[in-house]
Structure prediction request, 1273 residues.
Amino acid sequence: MPITSKGSRRRAWVSGPSKRLWRWKPLFYLCVLVVVQSTTVHGALELQLDEEQPEGTIVGDISAGLPPGETASLYFISDHEGTGVGSDLNIDETTGIITTARRLDREQRDHYSFIAVTMTGVTIEVSITVNDINDHVPVFPKKKAVLKIPEHTAVGTRFSLEPATDADKDQLTTQGYAIREGNVGQAFRLETKRAANKALYLDLVVNGMLDREKRSSYSLVLEAFDGGSPRRMGSMSLEVTVTDINDHAPVFNQSRYHAIISESLPQGSSILQVFAADEDEGDNGLVLYEINRRQSDPDRYFVMDIKSGIITLNRPLDYEDNASHPEVTNAFVTIHVRDYNDNQPTMTIIFLSEDGSPRISEGAQPGQYVARISVTDPDYGEYANVNVSLEGGDGKFALTTKDSIIYLIYVDQVLDREERDSYDLRVMATDSGTPPLRAESSFTIQVTDVNDNPPLFDQQAYRQTIPEVVYPGSFVLQVTARDKDQGPNGDVRYSLLKGKNSHSDWFSIDPVTGIITTAAALDFESEPAPSVTVVATDNGRPPLSSTAKVDIVLQDVNDNTPVFSSDFYNASIKENTPAGTCFLEVSATDEDRGSFGALSYTLGSGSGGLAPTPFTLDKKTGQLCTSTSLDRDEGLDKFDLTVTATDGGGLSSVARVHVSVVDINDNRPTFYPVLYTVSLSAHSAPGTSVVKVTANDADAGENGRVTYRTVPGGGSMFFTLNKDTGVISLSRSLHGKANTVISMVISAEDGGGLAAPVNARVNVSVVGGSVASPAFEQAQYFFTVSEGVLRGTAVGVVRAAAKTGVSKDVFYSISSGDPDGYFTVDSASGTIRTALPLDHETCSSLDLEIQARSGSPPAYGTSRVRITISDVNDNAPTFLPSSSESLLLPEITKMGTVIYRIQATDKDSGHNGQLSFDLVSAGAAGGNGQRTFGVDRGSGEVRLIGGLSYENVPRYDLQVVAKDGGAPQLSSTFTLVVHIQAQDAQGPNFDTLTYRVELRENTPLNTRFLQVRALNREASGNGGSSASSSSSSSISYRLRPDGDAAGFGIMPDSGWLFVRSSLDREVKDMYLLTVLATSGPGGVGRTGSATVRVTVTDENDNSPRLSQDRVFLAVRENLLAGTGFGRVSATDRDAGLNARLTYRLLHTDRHFQINSQTGEISTRLGLDREQQSSYQLVVVVQDGGTPPRSATGTAHISVLDENDHAPSFTHGRPDRELLLQVMEGLPSGTVLGTVTAKDPDEGENGTVYYSLSGECCTSTFEALPSTLTCIIL
Prediction:
């Protein structure tokens, strides 16, 4: 008895008696449940044994299913009531030995399963399969049956009989029928047909002409046999009654009747009786008599009894004539006594066969004698002359004689038993008497067989379709050959013709039944349509044979995964390459054919996420192209991608692609800051480092290497510039240069020859030895500000003091560290404020350099300020790659399996970005999904925790909420639709479990887009394509009614899917449909299922939408050309190129430009608020569709003031003095005059304050601060 185990487990054999321990202790049960819930260690054990084994037979050892390294001293057994485990098996819970508790009967139960749990929590799933043995004979429903068939029923007419059933399965069930006894003259034959329910039905077929008058009944013994070895057979008796039809006319026993009567015969006297017989029976053989008055006795002198045939006198007769004077004469009559013909001839027939029976070989040649006939007649004279004649035989036999005493019957024409196997002959011997007497003898000549006919197949060519993946021994088809000969000459045996190009080693054939089965594994890829030649040979001597070709079409099964030409692709592309440029083509092949070999390519990132937006992949050709212009300097300089090739059956392979973005010299060096101010003591020694200027170039390599030079005319003999580092050093003594400012202009150029658009200016303030730079209270400051504050919010205060200790003479500015201008510093107070909205996710901290200046020429001091932008919980969790997904889950999925892992992210940080997951809803039709699925709060893993049943709950809609840790808490919801796939081992079989198809949105209604196909699992049928077609034609298709199916329909007879409702990718981009195929009439029967995944592809049916139709921006005047200060943003609900947006200005503007990819607006030149304080731009955003769609918006730009103008007096030219004349002796407080000055700046920058300078003036006169009104002190 074989015991097999599968998986990673060891095998054990145990023998000896077993002790049945079948107990549960509640405490142990609870402990085991806890262990099972907390462990992930599982084992499996699959066992087999034949049925009908004696009680106590060892089935197997549970320990063979333990994972490697595990042992157990005690097992707890769990099974359900009604499984038969407790009644049919003995399980020793200590040793794990499983034995039978009684003889097992596969026909009552063919499978047992239970779970064994060890004390350490290891669970072993034990499955026991009971194998079939040939322990049942085919049984007819009735032991005896009666069948009535009219005579002369046409040859080939079928009469259905009830089939024999066999409780065994597969080859051990009924395989054929035969007529064992009673088939006289081979009057009948049997034909069979295997039905969808696997029953082998039979028909009784009329094989010869039936004649009730020759044989009125047949007692047949029918025999059914199975495919076991040896065979087992059952029989039944079939009484066939041949019913009569009116196929014979009545026949008189004489052709003429004579009677002489007297004219004086009294009326009513009987004259004679006629007699006629009819070989039919019943009413068909009842003879009635009458006189034909049209041809005789119109005057009705005679009448006839209708039933007896007796003729009587009806009217008086008068022999004389009827003249007026009749004449009378007399005559004497002489009577001679002659021999009366009162003896009929006698015949003796001797048949000339070996055994003296009436038979002749069909091979007999014309002229060969069949029988000898001798005739005699005891009468005298002419009455003894006998004439012999032969009737019947259809001209195949003739009669000859030489002496009219001995007659010979001989073969006159060639005989063919297969055309007719018997002839009914009648020999008649007639004498010459009056009336003549005759004798006759009827007999049947049987034509014996000669092996002159080879077996003939009912089809010259067979064709069958089967899946390529079937087990050896699987049914393919049944061929049938018939031999018209009989006996051994007609006994047919089948074999497969061996040949070099034949695939006979893939198949085998039963020599008796002609059933072809698989003998080895099939391979569609090596030969999609193997063929074999079947030879049918009879048992004649010599044997005759014929052949038929069997073409087997293999249905490709998706058993090959796509194979890439390379597992790794390395490509490079220059930045700024135009969008749509294709630079790499990946290719894969699949050895499968048809849809299973059709590949589609998808793009993903190396981390398993969505494809990066800069690239697209042609799903058919595998061409990798850019979807947008690449900028290596602002984006990534390399991409690690994955390309997935998926075939039509869902199998896939992955190749890695590394894309390097090659730098081009598309960036100029840029100084930041542009103005450098530094103070230097006049006593500094040559070689002292003064300041370092810095220009950055976003390019790489040589293109990003910056060299510095002084602009001609912008240098100084006191300083030198390191061209590589940008460090400016003192080259000679500054003696005599105290209280002066030395300026330098520095240019920058990269290795590709591009120069900085704006040069840097360096102002070196040379101070005397006694002048000290302002000193900050702290060398470094640390401030924190929330990202949610308003513009102008104070962040912190820096303070510095001059040598005099007076801080009001110190002015502050941001010298570096804030290129985007997020902050400002009050020049007088040192208060740092926000200037732009802050975003922690964009910038979490800045390091500013604050510069303090005092004196004239100014001396400078610096301090570092670290500003941390703290996070606000302003971002909800987002799911990757989308907030919904659908999947197909087989109902046999084991509990504990992780079916999906939800990925989510939160742009916030700290607690605000920490996510947890909760299953809040698990809607299911007819079931509680929250008892079936669970989600791990930390990882987002969705796990199966309950059993699945397609019949009870075919679909679950799971709602998982991701929450962050902020306050208030933000959340998002993820929807996971789980479709359960039925595991119906008996239902129709689809050619694939998962179909994948793409449909464009806005596809017209009623468009057909996919034809699914299913075959009955018995579709291998009884040979030929007709069986297959019948098996598929009896299948009806429908969609399982759920939310996804509402927009689609299916034609129930053909399996064509069509669009029923309009599709909109922006509303729903993927549908998961379940197609059900049901065999049987009226959609009632077994059901199989497959899944259709419909992906809705994008059409450019949405225009871009700006986040704001009008955007208000502000920009400082005097900013360098190219400075960005704001952006417009837009979205497009389409996808791919249809959603790729580019920005432009409707009208070219000399002051502003817009980045076509980001929408950032920047200056083209420096602005002057005093010339124009506001602008209005029309922005156009356009998608990449064909044709493109666009939207427009307006950007309102306000120019912010900078204090770039000094006040000017209005009294006249600036170089001329204002002369006020005053008379002496005027009292104090006298107004001498008013002077006015104006400043074109605005706000504080344009507010003018007045003061007097000079000792003579300040002691005598006073000026009011708001107006220069001079009064006498």
